[in-house]
Design brief:
By secondary structure, the protein is an all-alpha fold. It has 18 helices and no strands. The longest helix has 34 residues, at 87-120.
C-alpha cells in the first residue's frame, strides 16, 4: 500500500515513531552518559557494560509506562502523584527532583561550556552564563516540537561513537562478557561507584518525567499505545547502544595509551581522535555541544513541568510565556541558578559523575509513587502494569538505591 492511501492518523503515528526513535538516538547521550561510560571503560574496560544494559532496560520500561499513563489517564506523572497522594507528599519528590535536576543541568551547561572551550580556547567558566542565556532564548521563542525534534536531529552526530567502536575492532567476546554482572578485579569501591553513576545516568528521573509531559503536549490518547511501545523500546535501546559504544571505545583507546583513570575533561576527545584524527576532535566537540545543549533545554523544561504540574499552574511549551508566567519563571530561574557552579569554576566532569550517583540515590522518591499509579485502575483501567513490569523496575531501582547508599559515602569521604 502506498503512502497516499494510508489514513492520516496512521501516517501521523508512523511519523511519531520515527521521530521518537531519532529522539532516543540523538537525545540519550549527554554529559552524564558520556562521562560515566568513558570513566567506566578507561578504568574497568568492558566490565561495566552490564550497568548500561540494565539501566537501558529499566528506562525502556519506565518510558513506556510514562507514555501509557499519560495517554490513558490524560495526566502527567507529576499530576498523578499530587492528585493521588496529596500536595504534602508531593513535596518529597519535588524537592528531590528539583535538587538533582539542578545539579544535572549544571553538568550539562558545563558540557556545552567545555565544548566551547575546546573550540575557542576560552576557559569554560566564561561560557556558563552565555550558554544558559542561549538556552533561555530558545525556550522562550520555540515550540515543544522544535525543541524536542530539532535538538535530537542535531544530536545524531553522536552516532560517530558507534562508528568509532566498530572501527576499533574490540574483542567482541570480551564485550559480551561485560554485559553479564560480575565482581571487579580491582578497586571495588570505585567500580561500584562507577556502576551507580552509569545507572543514574541511564535512569535519570527527568527522562521519563519529560516523556510523560511530552505525551500530553503531543495530545496522545489510547490510540498511541502501540506507537508508545515502539518509541520507548526502539528509541531508548538505540540510545543505550550509543552509550555502550562510548564505553567500548574508551575501553580500547585509553588503556592502550596508559590511561586508566579519566579525571580531566580534556582527555575525553581521545575516544574519537584515536580513530578519526583531527576530524575526531571536531566530531567530539559537535557531539558534546549538541547533546549537552539539548539536554539543558529538556532539563530546564522538566523543572518547569514538574513544578507547574505539581502546584496546578498553567503549563505548556506551546503556550505563550504570558499565558503561563509561573512555568516560564521556573525554567528562567533554573537556568540561571544551574549556571552558577560552572561559572564559579566547578569541574564539569566531577560534578557530572557525582550528580549521576545522586540521581540513582533519589530514584525511589519518584519511581515508587509512579508504580502505585501504574497499578491504580482509577487512572489506567485495564492498562495497569503487569507483575513482570513491576518486578523489573522495582529490582533495578532497588539495586541502584542500595549501591548508592554503599558507595556515595565512600566517595564523599574520599575513599575509593
Amino acid at each position: 500500500m502506498t503512502a497516499e492511501f494510508l489514513p492520516g492518523r496512521v501516517m501521523k503515528k508512523l511519523l511519531e515513531i520515527c521521530l521518537g526513535v531519532v529522539t532516543g538516538v540523538g537525545g540519550f547521550l549527554e554529559m552524564g552518559s558520556l562521562a560515566t561510560a568513558v570513566q567506566g571503560g578507561a578504568a574497568f574496560r568492558f566490565q561495566p557494560g552490564w550497568a548500561i544494559l540494565v539501566g537501558t532496560v529499566c528506562l525502556v520500561f519506565l518510558t513506556e509506562m510514562a507514555g501509557r499513563f499519560s495517554a490513558v489517564s490524560r495526566h502527567t506523572i507529576a499530576d498523578g502523584i499530587r492528585d493521588r497522594f496529596g500536595v504534602k507528599f508531593f513535596l518529597l519528590p519535588l524537592i528531590a527532583v528539583v535538587l538533582v535536576n539542578a545539579l544535572v543541568m549544571s553538568a550539562e551547561i558545563g558540557g556545552v561550556s567545555v565544548a566551547l572551550e575546546m573550540a575557542t580556547g576560552i576557559k569554560h567558566p566564561w561560557w556558563a552564563f552565555p550558554v544558559a542565556l542561549l538556552a533561555w532564548c530558545v525556550l522562550w521563542r520555540s515550540t515543544f516540537g522544535v525543541i524536542e525534534k530539532g535538538t535530537s536531529l542535531l544530536g545524531l552526530v553522536t552516532l560517530s561513537f558507534v562508528a568509532a567502536a566498530i572501527l576499533l575492532k574490540p574483542d567482541w567476546h570480551q564485550v559480551a562478557r561485560g554485559l553479564v554482572p560480575s565482581a571487579p578485579h580491582h578497586d571495588p569501591a570505585n567500580y561500584w561507584f562507577t556502576v551507580v553513576s552509569i545507572l543514574g545516568a541511564s535512569i535519570t528521573p527527568s527522562l521519563y518525567l519529560f516523556y510523560s509531559s511530552g505525551a500530553i503536549e503531543d495530545h496522545w490518547d489510547r490510540g498511541y499505545l502501540g506507537a508508545n511501545r515502539a518509541i520507548a523500546g526502539l528509541g531508548m535501546a538505540f540510545g543505550g547502544g550509543i552509550s555502550l559504544a562510548v564505553l567500548i571505545a574508551a575501553a580500547v583507546v585509553f588503556p592502550a595509551h596508559g590511561i586508566t583513570r579519566v579525571d580531566d575533561y580534556q582527555q575525553l576527545p581521545l575516544t574519537l581522535v584515536a580513530v578519526f584524527g583531527f576530524w575526531g576532535f571536531v566530531l567530539f566537540i559537535a557531539s558534546l555541544a549538541f547533546a549537552c545543549f539539548g539536554a539543558t533545554l529538556e532539563m530546564a523544561l522538566e523543572q518547569a513541568y514538574f513544578v507547574a504540574q505539581g502546584f496546578g499552574w498553567n503549563w505548556g511549551k506551546n503556550r505563550k510565556p504570558r499565558d503561563d508566567p509561573g512555568f516560564s519563571l521556573v525554567y528562567t530561574c533554573a537556568l540561571a541558578i544551574s549556571a552558577i557552579p560552572i561559572a564559579a569554576g566547578a569541574d564539569p566532569l566531577k560534578l557530572t559523575v557525582f550528580s549521576m550517583a545522586l540521581s540513582a540515590f533519589s530514584l525511589p522518591l519518584t519511581v515508587v509513587p509512579f508504580l502505585v499509579l501504574m497499578n491504580d485502575e482509577s487512572y489506567v483501567g485495564r492498562h495497569r502494569n503487569g507483575a513482570f513490569s513491576n518486578a523489573v523496575v522495582t529490582a533495578i531501582v532497588a539495586l541502584s538505591f542500595v549501591l548508592a547508599i554503599v558507595t556515595l559515602p565512600l566517595q564523599i569521604a574520599g575513599g575509593t
